[in-house]
Here is the input.
Amino acid sequence: MSTEIPATMRAAVYRPGHFNLAIEDNFPVPEPKSGQVLLKVAACGACHSDVLLLTNAIVDDRTYIFGHEIVGYPANMPILSVPLSCRIGPNVEGIKEGQLYSVHVITPCAKGTVALPPIEQSIGIGLNGGYADFVLVEPRQLVPVPDGIPPEVASVAADALTTTFNAVHNVAGLRPGTNKRVLIYGVGGLGHLALQIAKHYGATVFAVDYRRVARELAMKLGAQHAFSLSEITSATAKAVPFTVDVVIDFVVNEQSFTLDKAMTRANGDVFNAPPSKIVLTGVSAENLPLNSAELIEFNTQVLSTCYGSVDDMKSALELLASGAVKPVVHTVPLEEVDQAINDLRASAIVGRRVVVPGLKHHHK
Here is the structure.
C-alpha cells in the first residue's frame, strides 16, 4: 500500500445558489500547515443546519465542503498507510497514532474581532468540512473518543449530543437526581438524545411530535407520555392544564412556541417557586410571538442555546461510553449525502443519519 497521501479526494461541495451538494472526485487534499492536523474522516453526521444552508435560510456566498459532525483518525490505519509525520503540520504535539478523535468545530476569534459569528465560520459551515475523505483541523479542536465507541456513534457527540447536553445540563440546569417534569418538543436527531439525558438524570419526561414513529421511539426511550399535536393542544386547554417545569424545544416555530408557553404557565406560587424554563434549541428562521408581560406574569424564562464547549463534548462522549445515551444511527456512503439531507428536510429520519466516506456506494 502506498505511503503517500493522495493528491485528490472525494468531497461533497456546496456552491452558492445551488440547493444540493456536488460530489467531486478530484478535490485537492489539503496540506497541513503549522498548527494543523490532517484527519482521515471516519464518520460525519448529517445535520439540520445543512438543510437551512441549502434552502438559503442562512444565506452563504462561499464555496466549501459541508459536514461538521466529524470524527476521524490522524494516524496509520488500514484505510490509509501514511506516516503520522506526513499528516501533521509543524508545531503540533500530543496527537496519538491510532486514536479516534471527535472534532469541536468552532475556532474562536480574537476578542474584539468584528466578523461572522464563530458558528458561521467553522468547519463545515464556511470552512471545508467532513463530507470528504480528509479534513484539516487544529489540535485544540480534537477530543479523544473513549475506546469501544464506533465512529458512526461517536460522530453524534461532535455536535448533536454536545448540543443537547448543553441544553439539558447547562441551560435547563438539570442535574442527576432531579424531580423536574420535562417535555421534549420534537423527537428527532437531537430530541431523542435530550430525552435520554433528562431520563438518565431522573426527570419525568414527556414528548411531543406529530410523527407516530417518533412518538413510538419516545415511549421506547422512557417517556411518560408522547403527545401528538392535537393531544397536547387539548391537554393545555383543560381547566386543569397539562404543565411541566421545563420545555426543550427542538422545532422552534410559532406553533411550538405558543404551546411551550402554555405548558409552562401553571407554576403554582410563581413568586416563590423556581421559574419555569423554555429552552429553544432548534434552529429556525421564523419569528416567534413574544410578549414580555405574559412571561413575567407566569415567571417563565425563555433561553436559547447553540452547540457547546469542549468540556460539554467530553461529557457527551462519557454518556456514550457509559451507555446512558444510545443514539439511533443509520449510516450512508458519501455519495448519498444529498439524499440524507433531503430526508432531513422531509422529516423522514428517525434518529441520526451519518455519512461514512469508507462505505461502498451501490449504484442504482
Q: What stands out?
A: Residues 8-158+309-355 form a domain with the Quinone Oxidoreductase; Chain A, domain 1 fold (CATH 3.90.180.10).
